[in-house]
Design goal:
Blueprint: H1 2-20, E1 34-40, H2 44-60, E2 69-75, H3 83-91, E3 97-100, H4 103-112, E4 118-120
Parallel strand pairs: 1-2, 1-3, 3-4
Length: 147
Protein backbone atom coordinates (compact mmCIF):
# COMPACT_ATOMS: atom_id res chain seq x y z
CA UNK A 1 0.00 0.00 0.00
CA UNK A 2 2.82 2.42 0.87
CA UNK A 3 4.59 1.51 -2.38
CA UNK A 4 1.43 2.33 -4.40
CA UNK A 5 1.15 5.68 -2.64
CA UNK A 6 4.84 6.42 -3.26
CA UNK A 7 4.47 5.53 -6.94
CA UNK A 8 1.42 7.75 -7.30
CA UNK A 9 3.20 10.63 -5.57
CA UNK A 10 6.25 10.16 -7.79
CA UNK A 11 4.10 9.99 -10.92
CA UNK A 12 2.06 13.03 -9.93
CA UNK A 13 5.16 15.14 -9.35
CA UNK A 14 6.87 13.81 -12.47
CA UNK A 15 3.95 14.78 -14.67
CA UNK A 16 3.70 18.17 -12.97
CA UNK A 17 7.42 18.68 -13.46
CA UNK A 18 7.24 17.74 -17.11
CA UNK A 19 4.40 20.16 -17.84
CA UNK A 20 6.01 22.93 -15.79
CA UNK A 21 9.58 22.73 -17.11
CA UNK A 22 10.36 26.09 -18.68
CA UNK A 23 13.22 24.67 -20.76
CA UNK A 24 11.06 22.27 -22.73
CA UNK A 25 9.68 23.32 -26.08
CA UNK A 26 6.01 22.53 -25.65
CA UNK A 27 3.12 22.60 -28.06
CA UNK A 28 0.53 24.53 -26.13
CA UNK A 29 -3.15 24.75 -26.72
CA UNK A 30 -4.75 28.22 -26.66
CA UNK A 31 -4.73 29.89 -23.25
CA UNK A 32 -1.61 28.12 -21.98
CA UNK A 33 -3.37 24.83 -21.42
CA UNK A 34 -1.04 21.85 -21.07
CA UNK A 35 -1.86 18.60 -22.83
CA UNK A 36 -1.20 15.33 -21.05
CA UNK A 37 -1.51 12.03 -22.90
CA UNK A 38 -2.17 8.98 -20.74
CA UNK A 39 -2.10 5.43 -22.07
CA UNK A 40 -3.33 2.64 -19.81
CA UNK A 41 -3.20 -1.09 -20.50
CA UNK A 42 -6.46 -1.93 -18.72
CA UNK A 43 -10.01 -0.70 -19.19
CA UNK A 44 -11.67 2.35 -17.62
CA UNK A 45 -13.10 0.31 -14.73
CA UNK A 46 -9.79 -1.30 -13.75
CA UNK A 47 -7.71 1.86 -14.14
CA UNK A 48 -10.06 4.48 -12.71
CA UNK A 49 -8.05 4.64 -9.47
CA UNK A 50 -4.91 5.52 -11.44
CA UNK A 51 -6.67 8.28 -13.39
CA UNK A 52 -8.32 9.60 -10.24
CA UNK A 53 -4.99 9.71 -8.38
CA UNK A 54 -3.27 11.49 -11.26
CA UNK A 55 -6.06 14.03 -11.77
CA UNK A 56 -6.37 14.62 -8.02
CA UNK A 57 -2.65 15.05 -7.53
CA UNK A 58 -2.29 17.43 -10.45
CA UNK A 59 -5.26 19.49 -9.27
CA UNK A 60 -3.59 19.86 -5.86
CA UNK A 61 -0.68 21.40 -7.73
CA UNK A 62 -2.95 23.81 -9.62
CA UNK A 63 -3.39 21.83 -12.84
CA UNK A 64 -7.14 21.53 -13.37
CA UNK A 65 -9.00 19.95 -16.27
CA UNK A 66 -10.98 22.37 -18.42
CA UNK A 67 -9.00 25.28 -16.92
CA UNK A 68 -5.33 24.77 -17.72
CA UNK A 69 -5.05 21.02 -18.30
CA UNK A 70 -6.36 18.79 -21.04
CA UNK A 71 -6.12 15.02 -20.60
CA UNK A 72 -6.11 12.67 -23.56
CA UNK A 73 -6.72 9.19 -22.15
CA UNK A 74 -6.74 5.91 -24.04
CA UNK A 75 -7.21 2.36 -22.77
CA UNK A 76 -5.79 -0.73 -24.46
CA UNK A 77 -8.48 -2.87 -22.81
CA UNK A 78 -5.85 -5.49 -22.01
CA UNK A 79 -4.87 -5.99 -25.66
CA UNK A 80 -1.15 -5.23 -25.91
CA UNK A 81 -1.25 -5.49 -29.71
CA UNK A 82 -3.03 -2.09 -29.76
CA UNK A 83 -0.41 -0.22 -27.71
CA UNK A 84 1.56 1.14 -30.67
CA UNK A 85 -1.48 2.49 -32.54
CA UNK A 86 -2.96 3.98 -29.35
CA UNK A 87 0.37 5.60 -28.46
CA UNK A 88 0.71 6.97 -32.00
CA UNK A 89 -2.79 8.43 -31.81
CA UNK A 90 -2.06 10.10 -28.50
CA UNK A 91 1.26 11.48 -29.72
CA UNK A 92 -0.59 12.83 -32.74
CA UNK A 93 -2.50 15.06 -30.32
CA UNK A 94 0.84 16.85 -29.69
CA UNK A 95 0.87 16.39 -25.92
CA UNK A 96 3.28 18.28 -23.68
CA UNK A 97 3.95 15.04 -21.81
CA UNK A 98 3.13 11.37 -22.33
CA UNK A 99 2.31 9.28 -19.26
CA UNK A 100 2.99 5.57 -19.64
CA UNK A 101 1.22 3.26 -17.23
CA UNK A 102 3.84 0.52 -17.45
CA UNK A 103 7.02 -0.62 -19.19
CA UNK A 104 5.31 -1.87 -22.36
CA UNK A 105 3.55 1.45 -22.87
CA UNK A 106 6.77 3.37 -22.21
CA UNK A 107 8.60 1.24 -24.79
CA UNK A 108 6.00 2.00 -27.46
CA UNK A 109 6.12 5.73 -26.73
CA UNK A 110 9.94 5.80 -26.77
CA UNK A 111 9.88 4.07 -30.16
CA UNK A 112 7.53 6.73 -31.55
CA UNK A 113 8.93 10.03 -30.27
CA UNK A 114 12.17 11.68 -29.32
CA UNK A 115 10.60 15.07 -28.58
CA UNK A 116 7.75 14.43 -26.14
CA UNK A 117 8.80 13.80 -22.52
CA UNK A 118 7.68 10.37 -21.32
CA UNK A 119 6.84 9.86 -17.67
CA UNK A 120 6.41 6.45 -16.09
CA UNK A 121 6.20 5.10 -12.59
CA UNK A 122 9.26 3.01 -11.86
CA UNK A 123 8.22 -0.49 -10.92
CA UNK A 124 10.99 -2.08 -12.95
CA UNK A 125 14.62 -1.39 -13.88
CA UNK A 126 14.49 1.09 -16.79
CA UNK A 127 18.29 1.10 -17.19
CA UNK A 128 18.57 -2.70 -17.03
CA UNK A 129 15.76 -3.11 -19.56
CA UNK A 130 17.41 -0.43 -21.74
CA UNK A 131 14.38 1.84 -21.70
CA UNK A 132 16.71 4.68 -20.66
CA UNK A 133 20.49 4.88 -21.01
CA UNK A 134 21.14 5.99 -17.44
CA UNK A 135 19.92 8.13 -14.60
CA UNK A 136 23.21 10.06 -14.61
CA UNK A 137 22.24 12.15 -17.64
CA UNK A 138 19.09 13.66 -16.22
CA UNK A 139 18.95 17.42 -16.20
CA UNK A 140 18.78 19.05 -12.79
CA UNK A 141 16.22 21.83 -12.94
CA UNK A 142 14.64 24.08 -10.39
CA UNK A 143 10.91 23.64 -10.79
CA UNK A 144 8.00 25.92 -10.08
CA UNK A 145 4.86 23.80 -9.94
CA UNK A 146 2.51 26.75 -10.09
CA UNK A 147 0.51 26.92 -13.34
Amino acid sequence: MAADRSRRLFLRHSVAAAIALPGLVMAQAPGGTRRVALLLVGNPATTSHFVKALVGGLSQLGWVEERNLRLHIRHAEGDLSHLRSLAAGLLGQQPDVFVASNEQVAREAVALTKTVPIVFAVGFDPVGTKLVQSFANREETSLDFRP
